[in-house]
Amino acid sequence: MALVEAPAAQGIARPAPRKASIARDLLRSPSAVAGLVILLALGLACALGPVILGTDPIAQNLSEALQPPSVSHPLGTDGLGRDELVRLLYGGRYSILLGIAAAAIGIGIGLPIGALSGFYGGKVDLVVQGVNDVLLSFPGILLALSLVAGLGVGLQNVTIAVAISSIPAFVRLARASALSIRELEYTRAAIAIGQTKPRIVLRHVIPNSLAPVIVQASLQVGNAILVAAGLGFLGLGVQPPTPEWGSMLGDSRNYIFRFPALSTFPGLAIFVVVIGFNLLGDGLRDVLDPRLRR
After folding, report:
1. pTM tops 0.70
2. Cβ atoms < 10 Å from Cβ of 109
């Protein structure tokens, strides 16, 4: 009896791994590629720019205060004679990392809470969603402002406040995914063979809720940067002399008519980085949502 050839021997190609397929589709998405290019360019500039320029971002030189853009100071100087370009690049490190950290904390707390709430239902869901609805009733900036008022100002407290303000969105999204996942066949099969509910949530509900959560996370980073910049503008964010885009905007408001460049460049930086994360989020949505995949 002749042996049947293996599929590889018959020239049948094996399907590409899911991760490789996602990466390939992501690179084919114009919005995702544009977002990645923007974010990589900004990230490299903020990481390497201050090292290359070699200027202290907090060193004051009052004799060069409020200088217009020049060869020695491409973006001019602020009211204390500090190089605006160097401060902008240093500030990007704090603003971008703060947004990423806040979104990561929001996922780490909101995803399991939302998954447990949606899967268990009943009184657990009622209590969790009651608290979540109260938090969602506050605008993000107002909730973060209230938390900073209680925690105090500073980089760590601002990160915590912005992270807490982002948790309700992840809780609601994870709950919506869990409500649909618990009705699927593989979840019912896991219950039928005797797996415990925490194990089902950990092994099935949370992993299968990641796609919409990842999309929301990329969008939430941009929102967190905006909230942190708003707090910095009000003087409740990262404290001087540490440069941060929001605090730089707040410092420049006294010179907005005489030296508009001082507020223009930090504002443009915030605009560009938020656009980058939003474009990346749109691309991830197109790739990870099966209803939008071709």
Report:
1. yes
2. 16
